[in-house]
Automatic annotation (TrEMBL), chains A, B:
Protein name (database record): Phosphoserine aminotransferase
Annotated cofactor note: Binds 1 pyridoxal phosphate per subunit.
Modified residues (N6-(pyridoxal phosphate)lysine): 197
Residues binding L-glutamate, per UniProt: 42
Binding site for pyridoxal 5'-phosphate: 76-77, 102, 152, 173, 196, 237-238
Coiled-coil regions listed in the entry: none
Amino acid sequence: MAQIYNFSAGPAVLPVSVVHQVQSELVSYKNSGMSIMEISHRSSLYTDMEAEAEENLRKLMRIPAEYDVLFLQGGGTLQFAMVPLNLAKGNNQVGYIDSGHWAQRAIEEAQLVPKIKTDVVASAASTNYTTLPEVPKLKKQYDYIHLTLNNTIEGTMYRKLPENLKHQLLVGDMSSNIMAQRYNVEDFGLIYAGAQKNIGPAGMTVVIVKHELLDDKLELPAMLSYVKQAAKHSALNTPPVFAIYVAGLVFKWLLEQGGVEEMQKRNEKKAELLYNYLDSSSLFNAPVTKDARSLTNIPFVTGNAELDQRFIADAQESGLVNLKGHRSVGGMRASLYNAFPFEGVQKLIEFMERFEQSVGGNR
Amino acid sequence: MAQIYNFSAGPAVLPVSVVHQVQSELVSYKNSGMSIMEISHRSSLYTDMEAEAEENLRKLMRIPAEYDVLFLQGGGTLQFAMVPLNLAKGNNQVGYIDSGHWAQRAIEEAQLVPKIKTDVVASAASTNYTTLPEVPKLKKQYDYIHLTLNNTIEGTMYRKLPENLKHQLLVGDMSSNIMAQRYNVEDFGLIYAGAQKNIGPAGMTVVIVKHELLDDKLELPAMLSYVKQAAKHSALNTPPVFAIYVAGLVFKWLLEQGGVEEMQKRNEKKAELLYNYLDSSSLFNAPVTKDARSLTNIPFVTGNAELDQRFIADAQESGLVNLKGHRSVGGMRASLYNAFPFEGVQKLIEFMERFEQSVGGNR
């Protein structure tokens, strides 16, 4: 079949060479006669693989030794509950930045955790989330402030952290832009990211947490406790072996490609190409303000819902797949994660130009 | 490399044809140009696959329509907490049968859920778990009684449900013997099983729950709520696509082989062969009483820890791998799940006979 380009927001495109390696060694992992799906998580086959994955992730993100790296299950949504369960202490007063749909889901889930008091300290509701929220000077000290670094649906992203969040303990949801650009891990108390966007297959969540924040007197069910998971190196029970394995291959691929700096360069180039086209097009339009634009998720519209639908269907037929925007906002979205190739963006723009011509350049 | 036989208790051996199918279609699932790891969980590629997996599981286990089937994350250990979080109502008094290590872990986790009162209504501690607990007539009505159908570490299994548990709402942990023999789903309010033993790769947990038990007014974080997961068909957030896909292939394979009855026949034949040998051996010994023996997990010892170690190492070298017993009990364990072939048991017995001769048949 013809080459396709997969713009899915997640699960998303993986590096071609990684998919081929998984295939080639699927039946016998490291010549063991067993598939990676069949190996015991108490064997050195597993523990060596897991240790290498963690080591490479530490290199890529420059994670200091005083941070634990956990490979958990349940996606970002379970983290929405685990963060307040584990990190709310003292007055249980926690602050959230409402930057879009997933930030709101994080707030809703925190509100379902007993005794937690959530303050929304900033919101971009007034611009319908086409900007990032203005974060004011905070008068209180919170147990933590939760920040969604990249808003997958709305297409906004913090290229830099808000000034007024300094001196607060930051929890960062990096699900859709982890390792898409350099962040300083030490600016955060905890970082989490579902793997299925910019890391690997669905079914694994990376949590990076400063060890001193973990309270070993906290009585939580084991699977909900960072300190218990950290004590068992994420193998408190059977870990999601296959997902960790593929993520490990992606980490190795990232290092071989030149690491996070190189990814950032490539992502900036890919995103710039598409934003420049969108800003010059008389048909397509990027709703997000220039200073808030995401590197990894780029929503765009024609302004005509029917035309949007036709575009999505025609693009799909031409091998440009999964360009439909999230159901909550409509329109189109191109997700340009680390593994998404530059030529895919070129093909998309060529297709958009032809489409624009075919409809006369007018909405 | 030479053929190996994988006796791992989990992650465990998968059907050879399933592993090969995963390999052959890994780069382009259903000719989509995308790997199964790259497809969106909102696409029909995913929803069709998930629906077929569920349908086949319903056929295999004869699951009535009034039960929800959920494909979750977090393994049995998260279920240890989710069961009391979701099913303890009214007096919050719940009963547990202490049949071994994993039953004890279920109790410990339930005790970490606020407001739950756990009663251990029966225990096999006095026989060091080489028997199943005698369940007395219960005087109280409990919100539920939790039963571990197969004790993976100790090698005991309920071939029939205890008489005195009738008229109680039963929660069954079938992690290591789901579909190894026929159980009647209607005898249970809820059944759960981590996939990585008798179903598929690690990272997916099957939950089968009677819909009327779910309370949609219960305010739990989404990932911990059966009713919220059921409302979204297990796709409340990104599900573990790859693990569900492989489990679905295993379900199809089970149907092709003749379903649960055929598996039970094969498992009985495999287990009988090994138990008969163990009972006749002058070196090896099966510690579990005959009426409590598991079909899927068969522990055995020589009575000499050093000799056990030598046996495990020699067997490993001969391609009989992962025979080491759980660290908490020592000795050996052969896990003979559905996908484990009859000839593997023959090879093991041949090897044990040779080993027995080589050490002179004496301990």
